[in-house]
Design goal:
The complex is a heterodimer of chains A (109) and B (143). Chain A has 109 residues and is mainly α. Chain A contains six helices and three strands. A three-stranded antiparallel beta sheet of chain A has the order 1-3-2. Chain A starts with a helix and ends with a helix. Chain B folds into two domains: 107 residues, START domain (Alpha-D-Glucose-1,6-Bisphosphate, Chain A, domain 4), CATH 3.30.530; 31 residues, no CATH class. Chain B contains four helices and seven strands, in the order βααββββββαα. The chains are: A mainly alpha (109), B alpha+beta (143).
Chain lengths: 109, 143
């Protein structure tokens, strides 16, 4: 696996570790693209903090800015890095220990 | 340490390979210990369906059938969207040990990434960041 894939996944996990950034990503995921002003109205986070988080999320490739007039730039979620992170979680979510316990129990019955 | 591409488990069972084989390759067996219900067309290229009472279901594609030693299938990576083409390969190997069976299960392919996914994952890191930064600076100045 190329080390850059790890870097992408790490950026996703770093982004998700912060409650404000989780809230911003969750809002973009559930309500679609939004401007920094929209997000400031919907979330209990200051506009300055939102701008700072959007900069980090944008740099990490987790959101992308849609070209627009000044102050009307809309940010949307980029799902590609999330899919990379998902495969890291997939190996952790597979429960072979539980399944093999169940197989053993089934055979012993 | 990189995240794992493969998961491997070995378990010693006090039952002969033939009995273990039945448990992992028949609808009755799979529908008891693995899922709550199962169907299987046991031949390479055949489909198997596993479903659970609490909702989820999985479609397996049978890849290797070498009774009673090797059973392999592919299935979708857990948690990925329905249309995602990524699949992992699961292989059960049965080895007689005394009167019992040593069962090894290997699931591999977690670290795979399609060329498309690979490309799109990188694009965003380099695209138009300068412009976005300028917009943010404007925004902060105006706020």
């Amino acid at each position: 696996m190329p080390p850059d894939i790890e870097a992408i996944a790490e950026q996703v996990f770093v982004a998700l570790a912060d409650p404000s950034r989780r809230a911003i990503l969750a809002t973009l995921a559930s309500q679609g693209p939004a401007t920094a002003t929209d997000l400031a109205e919907r979330l209990p986070i200051t506009r300055q903090a939102i701008a700072k988080h959007l900069a980090l999320l944008s740099e990490a490739g987790l959101v992308t800015a849609q070209p627009g007039e000044r102050r009307r730039v809309r940010y949307r979620l980029r799902s590609a890095p999330m899919r990379v992170a998902q495969q890291f979680l997939a190996a952790l979510a597979r429960d072979w220990d539980g399944s093999l316990d169940a197989l053993q129990e089934h055979l012993n019955r | 340490m990189a995240f794992p591409d493969r998961i491997e488990r070995t378990i010693d069972l006090a039952h002969p390979p033939q009995k273990v084989w039945a448990a992992i390759t028949t609808a009755e067996g799979l529908g008891t210990w693995f899922g709550n219900k199962a169907t299987i067309d046991l031949q390479p290229g055949g489909a198997a369906q596993l479903s659970w009472d609490d909702g989820p279901s999985e479609t397996l594609r049978v890849e290797r059938v070498e009774e009673p030693r090797v059973f392999g299938f592919t299935w979708q990576i857990h948690g990925l969207p329905e249309g995602d083409p990524r699949r992992t390969y699961v292989e059960f190997t049965l080895e007689p040990v005394g009167a019992g069976t040593r069962l090894t299960v290997v699931e591999s392919g977690f670290a795979q990434l399609s060329d498309d996914a690979y490309r799109t994952a990188f694009d965003g890191n380099t695209d138009g960041w300068g412009r976005e930064l300028a917009e943010l600076v404007d925004y902060l100045d105006a706020a």
